Amino acid sequence: MPQISTxxxxxxxxxxxxxxxxxxxxxxxxxxxxxxxxxRTSGNQRRYERDALRRVAFIRAAQRVGIPxxxxxxxxxxxxxxxxxxxxxxxxxxxxxxxELDQRxxxxxxxxxxxxDCIGCGCLSLDKCSLSNPEDRFGGxxxxxxxxxxxxxxxxxxxxxxxxxxxxxxxxxxxxxxxxAAGTSKRDAAPRRCAEPGx
Length: 199
What we know:
Layout: E1 10-11, H1 13-20, H2 24-32, E2 39-40, E3 46-49, H3 52-64, H4 69-77, H5 87-96, H6 98-114, H7 129-132, H8 146-158, H9 164-182, H10 186-189
Helix pairs in contact: 6-8, 8-9
């Protein structure tokens, strides 16, 4: 691991990359998103303050637990003078993110449990597919893994007001969930139309 002397107060992008473990391309991306900043030398080379190491470590730690970059950027923007987050900042932010992290853990647990079973994706490759999804009946509810959407539906309820797209997915998931419980296909559950005169 490359050590950086305490006498060095500004880092090149290569030094920041080597010491932080983040790829140069990732650092450029972070900078383009306003997560870190640099100054330019007379030769148009980037120079980062040494505390960018902590800032990058903060970003990567938050990303590892599934916090979106947009949320990280909002949190960093709230710091006075955009200073580097300290221990108290991390404790406060992680507490604010606790409910989101708990929700993600629950989703991962559901995903782990459901992937061993039929998920309504239409592959029909598992023995259980012939029972849960005969003739790919769940394809009638839309694209994707319909039975995984059932798990997402409950998570979406905890996210707050639904968008039109979220509401549509939730409705589809609800229909699929009812079909699973009732053991009926969408075609069977659809209202029958009366025959038109002369037909």
